[in-house]
Every structure is written in structure tokens, then in C-alpha cells.
Write a structure and sequence with these properties.
Structural class: mainly alpha
Order of helices and strands: HHHHHHHHHHHHH
Distance between the termini: 35 Å
Number of helices: 13
Shape: elongated
Oligomer: single chain
Radius of gyration: 19 Å
Helix content: 55-70%
Length: 232
């Protein structure tokens, strides 16, 4: 998956950006994975400087062919319509740097808490590549409490699909409908919605409220309701 993300980035940033990223990744890999936390202060690792610089180093350009196109390496949409799709080249670069550095949950939490919106999105996108268990779920739940649609979309990737409990996941689906985020941004939507009677009830209630208020029922709502097995 990250190989595909790297190819995606290479086709959307210029040669200078690609060279910078390759050098940064090589430096991070030479340094090895992030060590366990110690009691004393530790020097700032090189990858953190690269993480901060990615926004100005990897800028979007028009898609271009960089070497032979691998099977399945078609253009990935630049919007949340594709579940797990990157926001921009800088986000992809940051995810690759985090993965190469083997960043631990404590550091991810610090980066998310102190980071810009773009840096927070990168942390959320990186979770399924760095954390197998639910220990970073607090970052997802924090993002879902915001009204930042790009942050919410980034939070609803494969990590959330695996670890969000059913009530929290249903509320996340509804929040997408409330805020206009395409439900295609929700990873594993079909699998988790299938047979979910409580989600179907919540969606039907929301549709009824909108109809009673003279408002249109979103197409996405009808789509998710169909996924639950209930006709809209």
C-alpha cells in the first residue's frame, strides 16, 4: 500500500520534491526505528525536521509519468471520495517518513496534539501502517469531535474501521452525512454497514426528519441504508 502511495506522490510532485523525499527517507532509514522512551531529554530526530518541512518540499504538480506505470497504479482521486486517499503529496510524504521512522504511539500523540491541520491528517493517515492495536484510537475520536471535514475524513481510514466500536462508528457515519463528507471516505463502509439494524434505524430516523422539514434526503444516506440491507 505504501509503495502505491509513493508512486502516487512521485507522479504529483516535481523532481526537486522527489529528490528531497528520497534523501530524507534514506536518512531516516539509516537512523533506524524510533527508540523506546527514556527518562531524560532526547535530541530531536532528523525525521521530525523532515516531517515539518514536507509541506514546502513536496508540492502538488500536474500528474506526470515517472517511469513505467505499475498495474493498478491509476490516478487516485485527490479528494476523500476514495477511502484512504491522500490529501496531497505532503501528506503522503509525511506518512512515508513516519513509517520509515517506526514512530511510536506517544510520539504520534505529540505530533497530532501540537501539529497543524495538515500534520494531524498525516498522523491519522499513518495509523494503520504503524499501530496494530487500539492504543492510538484516542486520536481518531478526537478528530471525530471536530468540525474539520478533512480531518474527519482522514480519521475514517482502515484504523478506525478496525478499532472503532459500533456506537462510535455509527455516529461517525452520521457525522459524515451531517457535514457533507462523502461516505466513500469511510474505509470498509460496506463491510461494517452490512446487516447493521441500529444504523439502519438511525438513518431512517434522520431521513424522516429531513423529509418532515421539507429537505432532500442525501443520496449518500440512501446508499448507506441500502448497504445495511434495508431499502430506502
Amino acid at each position: 500500500m505504501l509503495d502505491e502511495a509513493y508512486r502516487w506522490l512521485c507522479r504529483r510532485t516535481d523532481a526537486a520534491g522527489r529528490d528531497w523525499l528520497d534523501e530524507a527517507l534514506a536518512e531516516v532509514r539509516r537512523a533506524g526505528p524510533e527508540p523506546a522512551a527514556t527518562d531524560g531529554p532526547a535530541p530531536l530526530p532528523a525525521w521530525e525536521a523532515h516531517f515539518a518541512a514536507a509541506g514546502r518540499r513536496c508540492r502538488r504538480t500536474k500528474p506526470e509519468a515517472v517511469g513505467p506505470q505499475a498495474p493498478g497504479d491509476s490516478d487516485i482521486p485527490d479528494t476523500p471520495d476514495n477511502a484512504g486517499a491522500p490529501d496531497d503529496p505532503a501528506t503522503v510524504a509525511r506518512v512515508l517518513l513516519l513509517h520509515a521512522a517506526g514512530v511510536r504511539t506517544g510520539t504520534l500523540t505529540r505530533l497530532y496534539t501540537r501539529g497543524t491541520g495538515a500534520e494531524r491528517r498525516a498522523v491519522l493517515r499513518a495509523l494503520p501502517h504503524l499501530t496494530a492495536g487500539p492504543e492510538a484510537l484516542h486520536l481518531v475520536t478526537d478528530a471525530l469531535r471536530t468540525n474539520d471535514t478533512r480531518l474527519i475524513a482522514a480519521a475514517l481510514g482502515p484504523y478506525a474501521a478496525t478499532h472503532l466500536d459500533p456506537p462510535a462508528w455509527r455516529q461517525a457515519v452520521l457525522k459524515c452525512l451531517f457535514t457533507g463528507i462523502p461516505v466513500a471516505a469511510i474505509s470498509a463502509l460496506s463491510r461494517r454497514a452490512a446487516g447493521d439494524r441500529e444504523l439502519a434505524r438511525m438513518l431512517a430516523d434522520y431521513a424522516a426528519e429531513r423529509t418532515a422539514a421539507g429537505r432532500d434526503v442525501p443520496t449518500d444516506l440512501c446508499h448507506v441504508l441500502t448497504l445495511t440491507g434495508k431499502e430506502s
